[in-house]
Amino acid sequence: MNVEVVLISADSPESNRRFRERMQIDFPLISDEDHAIADRYEVPISRKHPKALSYRDGFTQPAIFGYRGEEEVFRFIQKPGMLNLWGAARRPTSQQVLDAIRPRLS
Fold it and tell me: N or C: which end of the chain has fewer CB within 10 A?
């Protein structure tokens, strides 16, 4: 599909480095500790959840964006919630994301 995958995390660069090694991820993983990227794309920051205490200023909710050039072709942002397993619940699968994007790219 001629796409580039980039991960963005609120974790520190060192934490992201270890995660990439452990998970054998071969694409970029960018640290967004100050939430500048999250703010730009209006991704909510959870500050009240107990897990948020592990982060300098809360943790970003999971989000998935797909772009073709400047055109956004997919957007998913998890809504904050105490019972959504830190945002992991009800995320679309990779296949669901691809199925949603594929018609927009043809």
Answer: C
pLDDT digits (tens, 9 = 90+) for 56-67: 777 787 788 888
Whole-angstrom distance, CA of residue 59 vs CA of residue 45: 5
Cα 71 from chain centroid (whole Å): 18
Asked if the model's pLDDT at residue 87 lies above 70, the reply is no
Q: What percent of the chain has pLDDT over 90?
A: 9
| Look-up of token digits 């619940």 | 89
How many angstroms separate the Cα of 2 from the Cα of each of 23, 75, 98?
A: 23, 18, 12
Residue 32's nearest CA partner among 63, 3, 53 is 63
- Rounded to a whole number of angstroms, the CA Rg of the chain reads 14
Spatial contact of 55 and 65, defined as CB atoms under 8 Å apart: no
Residue 50, token pair as written in the block? 């107990």
**Model's pTM, two decimal places?**
0.72
